[in-house]
């Protein structure tokens, strides 16, 4: 199943029965995750859609795009409920854990500084405020991603220069800044389900785990290619990395040499335990189903692949 | 001798893995305790997570 242009993000809803996908083809698709049947397409963005998320009851979908807007959609009918106009492209959107706020990460461009805009959400009405509750600014390089920490107390942001910042967002305060935790652009940041730690991926060919409140490094996973995305499996001690050579660097048509596989690592031991093929170009985004029984990957090739694990996967015991 | 070296390397690897798992579990217990305490505090001060239920429909009109 797919889009007509490269995928930018794939994401499951909380129940795991729905999969949202966004791409550079300006569309947002909603699918049944178990069989890949498309439920609907949300049309309205005028540029690449960079990010998607939905609330816990799967009634509302938010998207952020290169048309300098974030949009709120009624999931069931596809009706566009609200449009927020931002100064620049919106690279990442995410509902808070209590669904009362949405964070939006904007790009730095044309004289506008990047920011993390936080808007309050009123679920009793489609009308939403256009005034952000808070705007967080970077004291370092551009933001590349951000995520809510546990109990919505914190927001962790990643930067283009490989650093991380921990915000007490409500008080607009920088609690910690961890410089150069990666040697390249941080391409993705995904929280563990309880928000206590998170994984980052980078063009420096590594993915790393960090504790939320301290930004202390916990684990590191090494690859032989730039990593665009990293996800953690909720039931097994595994992390999945996706990446591959950028199209500008690919000098061969071999998908093997392009390193376009999903790579599995043991979360605690840090060693690579397996790979899954399926894409003909770099993997841009990976999400793991909340029940841990499948994962989805979105590639530069325009395809979304949903991988269901074999029964062996659930019974496999690491030897120690 | 090769077999003995292999056994020794294997034993060392197992020992290292047990140590890593033990360290991870200890760290996780500390984090879980901290989360439990902070969650209690947050709930007492009014923080609420959304209730995920099928009957909670968002009304468009």
Structure description:
The complex is a heterodimer of chains A (320) and B (61). Chain A has 320 residues and is an all-beta fold. Chain A is 3% helix and 48% strand. Chain A has one domain: Methylamine Dehydrogenase, Chain H (7 Propeller), CATH 2.130.10. Chain A has helices spanning 255-258, 311-315, and strands spanning 7-12, 18-23, 28-32, 38-42, 49-54, 60-65, 69-74, 80-85, 90-95, 101-106, 115-120, 134-137, 143-148, 155-159, 164-168, 173-178, 186-191, 197-202, 206-211, 217-222, 227-232, 238-243, 262-266, 272-276, 283-288, 294-299, 304-308. In chain A, strand 5 and strand 6 form a beta hairpin. Chain A is globular and about 55 Å long. The model of chain A has no long low-confidence stretch (mean pLDDT 93). Chain B has 1 helix and no strands. Chain B has one helix at residues 2-44. The radius of gyration of chain B is 24 Å and the shape is rod-shaped. With 61 residues, chain B is an all-alpha fold. Chain B starts with a helix and ends in a 17-residue tail after the last helix. Chain A binds chain B through residues 14-15, 55-57, 59-60, 74, 77, 79, 81, 97-99, 123, 126, 150-153, 194, 196-197, 211, 213, 218, 268-269, 318-320, and chain B through 14, 17-18, 20-21, 24, 27, 31, 34-35, 38-39, 42, 47-50, 52-53, 56-58, 60.
Give the structural class of chain B.
mainly alpha
Query: Helical residue percent of chain A?
Result: under 10%
Let me know the average pLDDT of chain A: 93
**Uncertain runs of chain B with pLDDT below 50, 5 residues or more?**
none
Mean pLDDT metric of chain B: 86
What name goes with the CATH superfamily of chain A? Answer: YVTN repeat-like/Quinoprotein amine dehydrogenase
> Could you estimate the helical fraction of the residues of chain B in percent?
over 70%
For the termini of chain A, the CA-CA separation is 39 Å
Uncertain stretches of 5 or more adjacent residues of chain A: none
CATH class value of chain A: Mainly Beta
CATH architecture of chain A: 7 Propeller
Distance from N terminus to C terminus of chain B (CA atoms, Å) equals 79 Å
Main beta-sheet strand count, sense and barrel state of chain A = 4 strands, antiparallel
The largest sheet of chain B is: none
- How many structural domains of chain A? 1
């Amino acid at each position: 199943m797919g889009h007509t242009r490269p995928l930018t993000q794939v994401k499951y809803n909380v129940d795991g029965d729905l999969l949202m996908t966004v791409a550079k083809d300006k569309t947002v698709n909603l699918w049944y995750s178990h069989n890949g049947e498309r439920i609907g397409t949300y049309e309205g963005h005028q540029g690449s859609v960079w990010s998607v998320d939905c609330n816990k009851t799967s009634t509302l979908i938010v998207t952020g795009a290169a048309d300098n807007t974030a949009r709120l959609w009624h999931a069931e009918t596809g009706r566009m409920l609200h449009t927020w106009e931002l100064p620049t492209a919106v690279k990442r959107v995410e509902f808070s854990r209590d669904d009362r706020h949405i964070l939006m990460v904007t790009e730095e461009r044309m004289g506008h500084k990047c920011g993390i805009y936080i808007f309050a959400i009123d679920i009793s009405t489609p009308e939403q405020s256009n005034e952000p509750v808070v705007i967080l600014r970077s004291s370092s390089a551009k933001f590349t991603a951000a995520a809510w920490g546990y109990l919505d107390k914190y927001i962790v942001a990643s930067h283009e220069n490989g650093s991380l910042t921990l915000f007490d967002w409500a008080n607009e305060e920088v609690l910690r800044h961890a410089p150069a935790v990666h040697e390249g652009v941080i391409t993705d940041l995904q929280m563990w389900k309880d928000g206590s730690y998170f994984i980052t991926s980078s063009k420096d060919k590594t993915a790393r785990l960090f504790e939320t409140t301290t930004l202390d490094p916990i684990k590191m996973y090494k690859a032989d290619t730039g990593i665009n995305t990293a996800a953690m499996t909720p039931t097994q001690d595994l992390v999945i990395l996706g990446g591959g050579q950028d199209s500008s660097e690919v000098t061969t048509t071999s998908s093997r040499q392009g390193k376009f596989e999903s790579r599995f690592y043991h979360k605690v031991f840090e060693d690579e335990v397996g790979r899954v093929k399926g894409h003909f170009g770099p993997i841009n985004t990976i999400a793991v189903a909340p029940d841990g029984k499948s994962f989805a990957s979105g590639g530069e090739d325009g395809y979304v692949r949903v991988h269901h694990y074999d029964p062996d996967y659930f019974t496999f015991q690491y030897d120690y | 001798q090769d077999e003995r070296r292999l056994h020794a390397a294997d034993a060392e690897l197992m020992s290292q893995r047990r140590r890593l798992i033990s360290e991870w579990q200890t760290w996780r217990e500390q984090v879980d305790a901290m989360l439990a305490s902070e969650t209690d505090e947050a709930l007492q001060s009014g923080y609420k997570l959304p209730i995920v239920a099928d009957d909670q429909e968002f009304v468009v009109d």
